Amino acid sequence: MIKKKLINNANKIDKYLLNYLNKQKKSFLASPMKYGVISGGKKIRSTIILDAGKLLKVSQKKLLSICAAVECIHSYSLIHDDLPCMDNDTIRRGKPTTHKKYGEATAVLAGNSLLTLAFEIIVSKKNSLNLKQKNEIIELLSNCSGHTGIAGGQELDLRFENKNKNLNQILDMQRKKTGKLFNFCIQSVAIIGNKNNKEKILLGKLGEDIGLLFQLTDDFLDIKGSKKVTGKQIKKDNKKGKATLIRLLGYEKTLRYADKLEKKILLKLKKHGKNAKDLINTLKFIKERNF
Ligand code: GRG
């Protein structure tokens, strides 16, 4: 059931992105960009956005451009994360990483171009958001992607390798590296749904907690997952001395931490009644997933 929903959503966003890119002028980078963003990956962030649309009663039509933009940023981060100067990975989504297929320089440029494409999609006249919403969404997406978000989290991740870091330092790094984009996924829907400032912040924090839970499962999968099912190299964190909660607390205690975090998120979601049904199902997948 959830797998069907993920595939359906992924197909919709892939179609949107393909259509968008195909209408642009041709370039040598279009092919590595498509390789990095289309036909691959769970597109879980898009599913969170569409579930949040149901939670806050915002129509899907208004959200597809936001999904496409988020997937561009996410894929950009993966392309760069896999580079030899970062995590040096050769397999992603069950196929060679973008730099393995196209070379390092092209992978850097394709990543950069996906970053700028995300903002181009948001400002596009083709989407039905008003100017105030576009401004607010651009400000939030910049904040969640740059040095106060994903890029800043990645810098901490690299600096923390083989160092003893405490719980708060690790959580701060994981919230930035992974949680912030999930914060954006729900907060952007709150912006489009014209929620007040307090509600927007709270909904963003809820997204960030979901992102943290997603990262914790990613860390579990690095230990107990399968390369075939995840489509990427596993058992890397320990070798690289990555600062994870598992390294600090051990597997069992981290599992209990994740259980508590899931319960905290569920409690908040249940306040929304039946509108939260889809997001609750996605949350269960996030906690129990094997890919
Ligand atoms: C500023 C966007 C940006 C990037 C530069 C390289 C970098 C800084 C950041 C990397 C951040 C990173 C790789 C975080 C890990 C998040 C994570 C758990 C990724 C796996 O996501 P999935 O499972 O992947 O959703 P799929 O393949 O399904 O899309």
Secondary structure: elements and pairs:
Layout lengths: L1 H21 L7 H8 L6 H13 L7 H18 L9 E2 L2 E2 L1 H5 L1 H20 L7 H15 L4 H10 L7 H26 L4 H28 L2 H4 L6 H4 L4 H5 L1 H20 L6 H12 L3
Antiparallel strand pairs: 1-2
Helix pairs in contact: 1-3, 1-4, 2-6, 3-4, 3-9, 3-15, 4-6, 7-9, 8-9, 9-10, 10-14, 10-15, 14-15
Bound molecules: geranylgeranyl diphosphate (GRG).
Molecular structure report:
By secondary structure, the chain is mainly alpha-helical. It has one domain (2-288): Farnesyl Diphosphate Synthase. The chain has 15 helices and two strands. The chain has helices at 2-22, 30-37, 44-56, 64-81, 98-102, 104-123, 131-145, 150-159, 167-192, 197-224, 227-230, 237-240, 245-249, 251-270, 277-288; strands spanning 91-92, 95-96. It has a two-stranded antiparallel sheet with strand order 1-2. The protein is globular and about 50 Å long. It starts with a helix and ends with a helix. The model has no long low-confidence stretch (mean pLDDT 98). Bound molecules: geranylgeranyl diphosphate. Geranylgeranyl diphosphate (GRG) binds at residues 41-42, 44, 73, 76-78, 80-81, 86, 93, 145, 150-151, 154, 177-178, 215, 218.
